[in-house]
Structure formats: C-alpha cells, structure tokens
C-alpha cells in the first residue's frame, strides 16, 4: 500500500464517505439529465471544455499532487484519535460522569442525536473556515487557487492548494475528534453513528442528491423557500461567480442558515454565471503557477505594505482578497 | 523483516495439527548409557508453577493477627525448599483429578525466591530488587486478612501472583535461558547438562525456558480454549488433558499454568495466536537442537535458536502487555462503578474490593512487563507514574512511598476522576508501544470505531 498503488486511487471513487464516490457521481449525472429535460436551454454537464479545458486539467493535476503529498503528510499531522483522546481525558478528568446521559436517551436517540450534531457542527465549521479563507488576505491567496477554475466540474472539489488542504485536515480532525470525545463522555461507549453504506446518513443524502453538481455548469436551483435552508448547486455556482455583486456569497456547504446569520446568503441566479477570478493570469492553470503563486502574492503584498506604510497592516480586514 | 516472516511461518505451522508432544524429543546425548528415551526435562519449572499457584492460595488463607504463622505459610511456597510441602493449588476438584499432592513429588529442593529477578524494581517503593519486592509484599500480606489491605487498597494475592510470574517465569525464560544461556560457550550441546543427565546442555536450557511458559506438553495438538479450560480445571477437558492416560492430570507435563493460560485466554477470543506462536517456536527451536544429534551447535544453528527466542520473547511480552491493558480497562470501569455508589451514599465495600483486585492485577502485570531484560525506558517510567504505588482511594489519597520504618506513606495526589483518566492513558501508552491485537476491555474502543467510521482517509475537498 503506497501512494502509487491502484487501490489508493480507485478508493477515491469507491468509498461512499467521499464525495467522488461513483454512486454519487452517477446520481449527479442522472439529476443533470433530468434537469436538462426540463431546462433544455441551460448549460449541460457534457460539454467538452467542462472536462478537457486547461482549467479542468489543472483540477486533475492538483488532485494528483495532493493525493501523493497527503499520503505522506497526513500521518504526520494532528490525528483525530489524538484530539479525541485528549478531549476525552480532559473531560473525564474534570467531571467523572462518562456516559451520564446514557440511561436517559434510548440507543437510537443517542445515535441520531450524535449523527445530527456531528453533521451540523461539521457543516458550520466548514462554513466558518471557508469564510476565513475569503476574509483573511493570506488565506485567500491559497483559496484563490480553487476560485481560479474557469469551468466547474465535480473534480473541481479537489482543486485545492496543499496549504489549504492542511488547514482543511486540521478542521476535520479538530471537529470530529472533539465531537466524538464529547459524545462518548455524555453517552458512554454504546454509541453508534447512523450510516448508509458507511457514510453519515446526512452526508449520504447530501451527496446522493447531487452535491457533485455544485461544481458543474448545471444550475440546479431549489424553490426560494428551500434555498433559505439548503444551499442549491446554483447557489454554490454563484459563489464562484466573477461578478462583484456575488463576491463572498454562499460560503456554506449544506445548510444555508450560517450564511443567513453572517449576512453572506444570496438566492440563486437562474442563469449561467461566469466563474473564475477577475485577476486571472495567462498561465493560471500551470502546476507551478498554481502551487507557487499564492506565496508570490503574499510576499509582494507584504513588500508593498512595508514600502507604503512602513508597517504591517491588519490581516483580517474584510475583502482584502481583492486587494491582494 | 526476518522475524516477521519467522513469526508468520510459525503461526502458519501452528495451525497444523498432529505435532508430537514436547515431551517426546529423544535422547541425542552421545555416550548416554541410561535407559531414558526422552531428553526433555523441566520438572523444576513445573514445581515452581505449583509453588506459585500454592503461594497465591496461601496469601488468600492468611488471617489477621497471626503474622508469624502467616509468614511461615507463605514463605513455605516462596523461599523454603522443604520436602513436606503440600500442594495448595492446583488440587483435585470434581471431575478433574490432579497428581501429585506434594511439591517434592514433582521436583525437590525448589523455591521461587532464588530464581526471582535480582535487578532493581522502581515500580514498587523502597528501592528493592525483584526478590525483595516479593518478600516485602509477603511481609505486608502477613498483616492482613486474606491478603487484602483496605487501608492502602493493596490486594497482595494479585500483586504477588502477577509479579512473581514476571519476576520468576518470564525473567528466567527470556532474560536467562533464552538469552545468556544460548551463548556458544555456555551449556554446550556436546556435553551432558550435568553428570548422568539424559540431556545435553542446550537441550535442557531450551526445555527449562519452555517449562516456565506453563503450557501442557501436548499444547500444539490443543486449542487455546482447551488450554484455558485445563488451567481452569474444567471437568469436561480432564480426559483430553490426561495425555498419558493415567487417570489424572499430571502437574508436570499436562497442567496449564501462568502465562500460557493468559495467552490462551486472549487467543480464544480469536484475535491473537500468542499461545501457539510461542509454543511452536519452542518446538521448532527444540527440533533444531535435536537435529544437531548431540554435536556442538553451529553458528547457523545457534542463530536459528536466537531467532526463535526472539519470537518467544516478543510474543510473551505482548501477552503481559495485553494483560496490563485489559486490567487498566477493568480498573477504569471499577472506578466508574465505585463513583456511582459513593455519589448515592451506598455501600461501596464490594466495589472497592473489586477495584483493588483489578488494580493489583494491573500493577502486577505492569511490573512483570519491566523485568524481561529489555529496557522499556520512558514507557516504563510513564507506566509507573500513571499507575502509582497504589490505587487512588475515594479520599483522593494514594501511596507515594515508604517512611523510615518501612510503612507505606499516603498523600493526596489526584482525584478519582483524574485517576480514571489515567487508566485511559495507561491503555493508550500500552497500545502505542506494543503491537496489541486483543485489546480486551478497551475503554476507547468505541472512539476508535467511530473515528474509523468517520475517517475516509482524508481528502482536501473544497467549497
């Protein structure tokens, strides 16, 4: 088993816990086809540039680079079990009440509650980290790589700069480790995750109903009332829009409530949207550029500020990405 | 890599049936003129197993207020070598006859004290060596009722038993017989072990190590469940255990003891194969010696023996680590139960007794783990720091050392809740430092399982 073994790569498409599981892709294709029957004038999934353009090829390059890089990197990063154990030890060391709620909630209730809470907290943390990626200038430098995609297809979900990948790993590890530890402390050892085909039931439903179309040219929208609660693929496509009025909108993954709370929610625009970044570079999709450009931007921004003001400017100013 | 392959091969062969009994290795000693057909002899080790079992029973029999008699009773099985020592355990029970009923009928002049580890044991207060630690525990047990000191939470029956198994059997086998005594110039194979013996130097060295493991000689033809049942004196296994068909289970060659019993206990769960891996390595190593036909062992043959010895030592160590892991989990659960009773102002006497018993087993195995001749370094230090010199009592106090009179000194150290968390740390420490597979009573099993379910191998999915 190594980063170059076939199973490692095939596993990316055969594990129902991953978004690119073949079953989810198949359901996305099916939904896109149904949508095209109803809206024949809208863009379709099967367009040559969606899959074979320089932008699409760049998605693939980053997927391969990250896959190999993280095979070695991940074991050396913070692990879920270390976080979970640390949090659990802290909790039982403070208040010796492991499993204190076990008897007051039936097993199915415990499982559902745990699964739901994990899903909600995970969804919020994704939103919040995403918000930071947009609002903190040096983070935007890395997240911009994802937004530099000029066409969207399901592989774009893995168009991620490795530095951003490390941050995502930390987020996942901290959230899952902490929630699992807290749940075990509250409910005791007899705790199950509610799953379908091994995936969290809520995550499964999200993916089974076309999560892969979020990164696609097919603008599937929901009724307006539903888009207030669940983000439609079209709302995420709007998030990738080049149009200034769409900047920093719809940061959420599944639930729309976070965007509404933070003032970043936007109803879907039911027409094709130009995607990408406005300061697109001519060689934007070359691998070297994708990997190194974020650092160049950060260094030049720092130099500029030192030169202009003689001191560092606060890095958390809203909208700094467009300056950087 | 070499050892991994060897271990795998041993495990593979261990699964095959119809091996000869370990007692059937023939005489290879040149110029032997006696009438013995088998060159296998480890009666001294069987006697020590019986002494250990009897010592454990003796500790359970001590009565408060009769210190001198208590000491005499326990030392009869620890340090004395008299010929009139009755077997206290294992004794015959309904449907499970054992013979003999005196220790000297197995082997005379044996004791545990002389063979106990002579190195320092920092896991017990007082800077003592292994033999002194056991003597100290016996002296303290003599002042209790049934070997239990409710003031400190020490269950000496468990402490003495579990540590003695390590300090005598494990230490003698892996740090003496399977180590120094395998050297070229020690106990050579072309000479009798002693005048008139039917076995060569190396044959007897190897057999004595096998004897200390505690498995029945026919172990390779038995399942782990069989061996476990024999140690438990289950009437249903008596006939199977009686390999020579003399109508009773012989305490030498047919009974199961000590770490072989614990190995079988883990293996019957199906996740491990310690018993047969160790037994097969003993058997195969012995076969290397047999094939030398009484000649000096070549370098290649001795290297093979060292490889088998490594397999034995590594798996034996795992059995001890698995046991410590298991009892850390029991102790964790005991604290939880104890707390519930204490918070409800209930009678916690029984729960406290169970807590002390499991702690004694944890401590004994953790101490045993440290006397195999391998320096566990930081792991041993952390293990001893976490477990301490005694369980933490409901008043948050714990034994922290001894005073000038040798009495245990107790101080407030940590809360029961913190100590409960330490039991999780003990399990995590053991799991991180030993390749444990059985992991009985794993406190964080659910955590591992849930995290495994959530862990999709990681991805850098973006939004």
UniProtKB/TrEMBL annotation, chain A:
Keywords: Membrane, Transmembrane, Transmembrane helix. The keyword Transmembrane applies. It is found in: Membrane. This is Fatty acid hydroxylase domain-containing protein. Residues 116-264 form the Fatty acid hydroxylase domain. One of its GO terms (biological process) is lipid biosynthetic process. InterPro entries: Fatty_acid_hydroxylase, Sterol_Desaturase_Related. It comes from Reinekea blandensis MED297. GO terms for cellular component: membrane. The chain crosses the membrane at residues 20-37, 71-91, 165-187. GO terms for molecular function: iron ion binding; oxidoreductase activity.
